[in-house]
Structures are given as C-alpha cells and as structure tokens.
Amino acid sequence: MSRVGKNAVSVPSGVDLKIEGRTVTAKGKLGELSFETTEEVELVHEEDKVTVKPANDTKKARALWGTTRARIQNLVQGVSEGFTKSLEITGVGYRAAVQGNNLNLQLGYSHDINYPIPEGLKVVCERPTAVAVSGADKQLVGQFASEIRKARGPEPYKGKGVRYADEVILRKEGKKK
Predict the structure, then answer these.
(1) pLDDT tens digits for 4-53?
(2) What CATH number is attached to the domain comprising 113?
(3) What is the pTM for the complete model shown?
(4) First-to-last CA distance in the chain?
(5) Fewer CB atoms < 10 Å away: N or C end of the chain?
(6) Phi and psi of 52, rounded to 5°?
(7) Cα dihedral 63, 69, 74, 77 in deg (nearest 10)
(8) C-alpha gyration radius of the chain
C-alpha cells in the first residue's frame, strides 16, 4: 500500500500558499490555482512545508490522504514550473498549426480539425509535426493533449496518427501471402 501522503510538500520560494478553511490557494510566477479539500483530511502549513493527515481512520480518509497531497504538489509545481505535454504527428500530409486562438490539425480527414485553445494554456508548434501543450494546471494540460491525440490516435501497422512524444507504439506485422 502506498503512503504518498506521509511525505510533506515543500513550497519553494516564489510560491505563496494559503490555506483558508478547506480552500488551498497557490500563487506563483505562472498564475494562481486553487482547489477545495474534503473534511476527510487535515492540512498543516508550517513555514515552507505542508503536511496532510487523514482526519479519521476510515477507508475514504486514507484514500483521499494521498490524493490531496498529490493535488497540493501539482498546485505548487504548476504555479512555479508548469507542466508540458509533447505530441508528435506521423503520417504523410499530417500537420498542425496554431492560428490565433485555435489549433488547426490536418490529419487525413476530408476537413481540418480546429480546437479552440483553452484559457491558461499555451500551445506551440515547433515543427508542423510537433505540438507542445504547456500550462500551470496539470489536469487541463493533460485533458487538452488527450483531446488532440483522440482526433486520430496512433495505429499499430504504419504508426500513423497523433501520439505522445514519450509513447511507444507496438507495431504489428501486416498480412502475409
């Protein structure tokens, strides 16, 4: 059983962390993020560390203990460093481009796919076949990258489609005579 919650979250200099009631707010150079905790956990803020403890000995409290600690860690890391997901596009004629506030994808369909870029995210196309999504909110970055990948997921025979940069696609052998 994991005990991630036992580790304290260290708050680096430049990040202002406030705990008011059940609301945890982190403010840093990349913005401000906050979330509501449950009554199942207790938070203790001492100098530059935040410790999370289960309020009682129920199964739900033990489950939310580590989850709350991870959420606080993501808040602190998000406002100080940010998160980035890199995607690669493979296929003849497949490409991406940022046009204003939209991400334009050409993925072999009869039409282009336009995704409006959510507020708080930055999307950069270094090359027409590489897309980098970055922002302070880990959930928002992952969700947007997942939607881009879902437009045309990688296929196992030729490897065409959109995949994460660190994703490994297991290739299959084609038909034999």
Answers:
(1) 777 888 888 888 888 888 888 888 888 888 888 888 888 888 888 888 88
(2) 3.90.930.12
(3) 0.85
(4) 51
(5) C
(6) -115, 135
(7) -160
(8) 20
